[in-house]
Amino acid sequence: MVTPSAPAPTLAFVESPVQLLNVLEWAHARGAGRLLGVVPRQPARGGGTEPGQAGAAAPAEAAVPGLRIVVLPPTDPMSRGQLRRMAGLARDEGHEVRWQEARGGRFAPFKAFAALAREVRAAERVVIGDPFSRYVQLLLTLVRAEELVVVDDGTATMEFVAQTARGERLVRWHRVGGGGLPARLRELAYAPVSATARRRFTPGGGGGRRVEVFSSMPVTAHGGMTVRLNDFAWTRARFGPPLLTKGTDLVGTSLVETGVVDPDRYLEAVRALTLEHGATRYFAHRRESPEKLRSLSEATGLEIVRPDLPLELIARRGPVGRTIVSFPSTVVHTLPYALTGTGVTVAVCEVDPSWLTASASERARGFLAGVTETARDVHRLPAQTAPAAG
User: Fold this and answer.
1) Burial class (CB in 10 A: 0-12, 13-18, 19+), 9
2) What is the DSSP letter of 215?
3) Who's near 223: CB < 8 A, 6+ residues apart?
4) Which residues of 214-223 are buried (b: 16+ CB within 10 A; e: fewer)?
């Protein structure tokens, strides 16, 4: 890949499809984004329009100046596929997108760091999708920008704001309390980088730095940090409204993959929700394993759907069920914004404490409860919806 000849005033780092979506929402909210004509009711697969289709987007006149989105892709194929489709949407909006491999080989992280160093130092504003990412934290040691913007990486934003308010080190909520001696030694060796990242996220530090959080999550500004609402205005303008089906759709989570919820209890919960609500489709999280999804399908008869874009876009373009049921996750906060005015009901099913694994921390238990309790415009399913333990 050819390195751009000149640094961009605004540099965005994303590692997941949702982060890239939220960078587009941020750019739109700041006035940097631009809609490309009228989008048909049912866009073609991947979010674009078919050549010659009525209402197709007009060709981009010129790239929107000032914003360069750097994609640091993970290694799993589903995430990479979604990121490529999201990158196409970003280019349709006139943004420059750079694909930078930073994983998958012994020297890949070092090569990426060297390739990005000049741009990071020169950027006037840096937009970050995942403040917990160790690779992004490493890049932050080079940042001289006067403005840092954090866009949502899902519900982790809630923990990021809470941890910075308390002055704590940045650790993902589901990893707190785990790990043996090797993990603790790695944390000790990495501590200086983490501490530097934490200082970068402190407004006023290093010459009056401004820190903004652009979020759909229920977070409160603190210590000079500003928070702006992400109400998915770009998504609502660009897609839909969706066609509604009569059925119920379930939304999968990666709580099993992150070691928080027991696999058997999760399967029983999905089976109970399927029977109670007459669900027919299960939208898989991009991190859910094929083996787990196969077991779910065999046990419930659900059609497993592996989305090619973030669920907010999939639901907005439709077709989608009149009711969407999810466990505590990002979508119980984002879908009510994306689907406002469509008549879709979003419901959240609480995670029973008996479902948690022995290795799940107390913080995980409290965090999941907080995700449910703070969700707006959702229907909270009664506790008896959860299958009984035993």
Assistant:
1) middle
2) E
3) 164, 165, 202, 203
4) bbbbbbeeee
How confident is the prediction along the chain (390 residues), in pLDDT tens digits per residue? 444 457 789 999 999 999 999 999 999 998 655 444 333 333 333 333 322 222 333 333 333 358 999 999 998 888 899 999 999 999 999 999 999 988 877 788 888 888 999 999 999 999 999 998 888 888 988 988 889 999 988 888 888 888 888 888 777 755 544 555 565 556 666 677 778 878 888 887 555 789 999 999 988 888 888 999 999 999 999 998 999 998 899 999 988 988 889 999 999 999 999 999 999 999 999 889 899 999 999 999 999 999 999 999 999 999 999 999 999 888 999 999 999 999 999 999 888 888 888 888 777 777 777 788 888 778 877 543 444 444
Indicate the residue type of 58. Answer: A
H helix runs in the chain, sequence order: 17-29, 77-92, 108-122, 134-140, 156-166, 181-200, 205-208, 233-238, 263-277, 290-300, 311-317, 331-338, 362-373
DSSP string, 275-328: HHHTEEEEE--TT--HHHHHHHHHHH-PEEE--SS-HHHHHHHS-EEEEEEE-S
Longest dimension (CA), the chain: 62
Whether the full predicted model's pTM is greater than 0.90, yes or no, is no
Q: What is the DSSP letter of 246?
A: E
For residue 250, count CB atoms less than 10 angstroms from its CB and return exposed for 0-12, middle for 13-18, buried for 19 or more. buried
The 10 Å Cβ neighbour count of residue 343 is 9
Contacts of 131 (CB under 8 A, 6+ apart): 137, 150, 153, 160, 170, 197, 201
- Nearest Cα residue to 286 out of 324, 331, 332: 331
CB 283 within 8 A of CB 305: yes
Which string of DSSP letters, residue by residue, matches 79-128?
Answer: HHHHHHHHHHHHHHTT-EEEE---SSSSSHHHHHHHHHHHHHHH-SEEEE
